[in-house]
Design goal:
Layout lengths: L13 H4 L4 E4 L5 E4 L1 E7 L2 H11 L6 H17 L12 H4 E11 L2 E8 L6 E3 L5 H4 L14 E11 L5 E13 L2 E14 L1 H5 L5 E4 L11 E2 L6 H5 L7 E7 L2 E7 L12 E4 L8 E9 L2 E12 L6 E3 L1 H8 L6 E3 L4 E5 L7 E4 L5 E4 L5 E4 L4 E4 L1 E3 L6 E3 L1 H4 L2 E6 L4 E6 L4
Parallel strand pairs: 5-10, 6-9, 16-25, 17-24
Antiparallel strand pairs: 1-9, 2-13, 3-4, 4-5, 4-8, 6-10, 7-8, 7-11, 8-9, 12-13, 12-26, 14-27, 15-16, 15-20, 17-25, 18-19, 19-23, 20-21, 22-23, 26-27
Helix pairs in contact: 2-3
Length: 414
């Protein structure tokens, strides 16, 4: 639930490193980042919802906070060395393979999550105590001939599951899929919370949001540009695409649109980048074939969030069509019997295109032996909707930075 990138050769002085990084592509104007499967992690609905609320600076309802805290404490008490899970849920129902992206910084390889809802690129570093970095790949700036510290620059991030990372910032060569950017900002963690320590699969978090000076970057005193923003001028096309599928390795492709990855025609919608998000207005939804007009609802496409957080009107209308569904505050959201067949959910991207999420993709996790937690939950009246991986699992998505728009079409295969 936390859920990048480029290669950068630092040949600049410190003052130049603080300016626009240089980008170098290896023999082509496009590249592909393929996810790599790691060991299983466990999905807990209330923790994911609270994490998303905190990520976007929303007030967390007390019942949701208590439910997530209870799940974390129960898991920690049972096994301090495992990732969080609900003890009552069968392991086979909760566990899923975690898919990450390999990243090379000055030749040192780490595995990271990609997050289009973040503008920070932070890594486990040799500056961490050994008790915190044991079992992780770490970046050691002392072994890099191209690392340059950014004097006085720091970062601090806290997530909704109460995980956090703080540290210092420098620039170095980051290599992903064959692209190189000189002077890319890299945030070196000097302290991380226990949940990151225990998650031996991931060695940091990557970005792909806009990184506007007044938006998402947590670097102080001066926010830094994202990988995509830095790499965009050297790409064949100023775009990247996401092909993310539940339970299978996906990919991100930069600089090109692969027409074999989607069905039908591409459908484009303008993006409002004023706050740093990949945000567009959705005019409504379709539930079980019936249209629900909601008016323009600002919606953020976020690969760093797993679920859908939508207007309460939408959530209520959807679960009214789900047999046995109910709001369970002790579990942190809407739940239903696991043997219930869920209706499809269509999210209107434009008046002429609706992105349809099949019902079999709308269960997030199993809460207990017979009860499932929905991947669609309420945003509790917040002014935007969050479209996480559940949305991407059915859609081929284009992030077009050159034209400030997003393109969508169904996956070639779901």
């Amino acid at each position: 639930m936390r859920c990048i990138l480029g290669t950068w050769l630092v040949i600049l002085s410190l003052s130049a490193a603080l300016a626009a990084p240089a980008t170098k592509l290896r023999k082509r104007g496009s590249f592909t980042i393929k996810q790599v499967g790691h060991s299983e992690h466990f999905r807990v609905g209330s923790i994911e919802v609270r994490k998303a609320f905190t990520k976007y600076g929303w007030a967390v309802p007390q019942a949701l906070h208590d439910s997530a805290t209870s799940s974390i404490e129960a898991a920690a008490a049972k096994d301090a060395n495992s990732t969080v899970r609900v003890a009552a849920a069968p392991k086979s129902a909760q566990a899923e393979t975690q898919f990450l992206v390999p990243v090379s910084i000055a030749g040192q390889e780490l595995h990271m999550n990609i997050d289009t809802g973040s503008s920070d690129f932070w890594v486990f570093s040799s500056e961490l105590p050994k008790t915190s970095s044991r079992g992780h790949a770490v970046f050691d700036p002392a072994k890099s001939p191209t690392f340059k510290p950014m004097n006085g620059a720091t970062f601090g991030i806290q997530y909704g599951d109460m995980s956090a990372a703080i540290g210092v910032v420098g620039t170095d060569t980051v290599n992903i899929g064959g692209v190189e950017v000189q002077g890319q900002a890299v945030e070196l963690a000097t302290k991380v919370s226990g949940s990151f320590v225990r998650d031996l699969n991931s060695d940091g978090l990557g970005d792909d949001a806009w990184g506007l000076p007044d938006s998402l970057s947590k670097v102080e005193p001066k926010p830094q540009k994202t990988f995509f923003e830095n790499a965009m001028p050297s790409l064949e096309q100023p775009v990247f695409t996401a092909v993310l599928k539940r339970g299978a390795a996906g990919s991100y492709e930069f600089g090109v649109i692969d027409k074999t990855k989607f069905r039908g025609e591409l459908n484009y919608v303008p993006v409002d980048s004023s706050k740093g998000w990949w945000q567009f207005d959705s005019p409504g939804v379709v539930i079980g074939g019936q249209s629900v007009k909601t008016g323009a609802l600002p919606s953020i496409a976020d690969t760093g969030t797993s679920i859908l957080l939508m207007q309460d009107q939408v959530v209520q209308a959807y679960y009214a069509q789900v047999q046995g569904a109910q709001m369970d505050t002790s579990l942190g959201g809407f739940v239903y019997p696991c043997d219930t067949n869920l209706p499809d959910l269509g999210i209107m991207v434009t008046d002429s295109y609706t992105a349809t999420i099949p019902g079999n993709l709308l269960t997030f996790s199993q809460a207990d032996a017979n009860t499932c937690f929905g991947a669609l939950q309420s945003n509790e009246g917040q002014p935007v909707q969050i479209l996480g991986d559940t949305f991407f699992n059915s859609q081929f998505v284009i992030f077009d930075g050159g034209n400030l728009q997003m393109g969508m079409a169904p996956h070639a295969e779901i």
